[in-house]
Amino acid sequence: MRDLDKPFLSHPFDDDKLKEECGVFGVIGVTDAANFVALGLHALQHRGQEAGGIVTHDPEQGFNSARRFGYVRDNFTSADVMATLPGPIGIGHVRYSTAGSKGNTAIRDVQPFFGEFAMGGAAIAHNGNIVNAEELRRELIGRGSIVQSSSDSECIIHLMARSYQKTIPERMKDALRRVEGAFSVVAMTRTKLIGVRDPLGVRPLVLGKVGDGWALSSETCALDIIGAEFVREIEPGEMVVITAAGVESFHPFEQRPSRPCIFEHVYFSRPDSILGGRSVYETREAIGRELAKEAPVEADLVCPVPDSGTPAAIGFSLQSGIPYAMGIIRNQYMGRTFIEPTEQIRNMGVRLKLNVNRALIRGKRVILVDDSVVRGTTSRKIKEMILDAGAAEVHFRIASPPTAWPCFYGVDTPQREKLLAATMSEEEMCHHLGVDSLKFISLDGLYRAVGEAEGRNPKCPRYCDACFSGDYPVKPTDVVNAGRLTLKENA
Ligand code: SF4
Predict the structure, then answer these.
(1) Any ligand 1 atom below 6 A from CB of 263
(2) pLDDT at 469
(3) Cβ of residue 465 lying under 6 Å from some atom of ligand 1
């Protein structure tokens, strides 16, 4: 999901991380589905904090929806709001806005989107990014579609409206065959919950069983919160249509080797989720171990940059034998609203979120483990804080390869020239950050950590790793056509 009229703007604060843009969740066959959806979305809040929405259907009251800015806990816990969302079936969506602030995000862009068709209504929630959305939108508008939002995801509803198929699942198949890019879609009709994953399976989607009902979710951690049993992942290129009678599976797209996002393992997914049959936490610990083997250094402490660097730091410590320590403490209660009012407070930047444990750091040679370096602005500030606290040496170890290319598959990324690794070598970045050493895990090392013993097979890579390699598994048509990206030769 992206805003077509502001494709790659970044958030003004904390913009030094890649940001997953959405989480999706749906449930059928339970009493008061909206409560389950709200809990599921709450567990997926790390995938999008800007806004959220829920659509439900009740046999007597029809479709209802509520879409709000802000956190799920602030919007979908009030009895008044939840009472407007009755019924045994519902879907929901959390989004991170590329626009950067509530003021720039229109409520019309908040999902799920709803469409009324001859055979009944349907709502859809989309995680991913349609790389030919601008092309499709021009065509749809040219043929008379009245577009309501600036989101690429709305194209799916309009393409469904133009299909001649007789059922909503068949119309969805038609629509999604026209769409290029990454999509994990959760949709609903009056009686059906539908889940679809793009042929490459870039973004995750899982199926769970909850009592006599079923759930679909971006991640397994959201199944846990509602007490659902994890059944399986939706396969790349699969559509499931779930009714009271059970789960039907279809494969409407041409089969291709799958390429799920490898960065989900490094950073996006929650560490308590299961992804590709693996514990995300264990994978991150394995990344830390690989990193310690590839880039050892003599030091006194291994400290994570909280929170996402923690499992990799533990792995690094276990492999190297260097003690693990919480050298940086995160202020858990730092909300976004507090930092919005004044420039002065905004300039405090990273210090508002992170504080150095001075007593621990003073005089020590410190290895800092972080998940990624995007612009490098946060890494520089953290290095300064560690040196201010009296560290003798600062060594950065990064649990992903250098991020040198933007993502066009549902992750908010700065333009390529803003990515530190796009313009500097590892040595230059080390100098720029002013640290004693800087090492990234290799792409082969990352593949080993996610279970590919031989590393990356360049002829048939098992994952999407385009932000590291520049090897885009689906051509980002819109940006290439607009001259906003030059692809690598042979890519
Ligand atoms: S480009 Fe990177 S972040 Fe985007 S889907 Fe591929 S691996 Fe994931």
Answers:
(1) yes
(2) 97
(3) yes
